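From the pipeline queue, job 12 of 40. The input is one protein chain; the requested action is below.

Action: predict structure.
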Amino acid sequence: MNSLIIFAIFAMAAYVFQIFLGWQQLKDFNKTYTILRKLGRVAIGRKPGKIKSGTIVMFAVDENGRVLKASKMQGVTILARFQNMENFVGEDIHYFDKYNPLVRQENKLLQEAIEDARKVYLWHEAGIEQETNSSNSFLGLGFYANYLKLSIKQFFTKNKKRSSL
């Protein structure tokens, strides 16, 4: 009976400690978001981890799509905290796709989170405030068409810049 009580106390203490660390992680997220939000619009990308580490990236972006500041949080535990990504500062978020050498040098989960941030930014730029789920596919076609139109426009703008160099 005593061992059961000791185990229950230990389990409760571990649970309370986990809640405290999760709260600290949420506080770190809010602090980082507030700092980035003061600089400009914030594009957030995520790649949730089930067994592997989860990843969140945030980019403070100016009105032209240039990254002013970038941060990432990647880890398996609730001890993960945001770290700066200095090599993305000054880059154009429109070109953060899988072909960008800057993105390719990151690990696979971070690459997917960066591409998610780019996708969310492009959707917002196209005037799409929220993604639709698959059950709402008819409305999703209009949103997807706007997204596709913007992606094609960005593709031709990117190739036009390369050919003029």
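Job complete. Confidence is low (pLDDT under 50) at residues 132-139.
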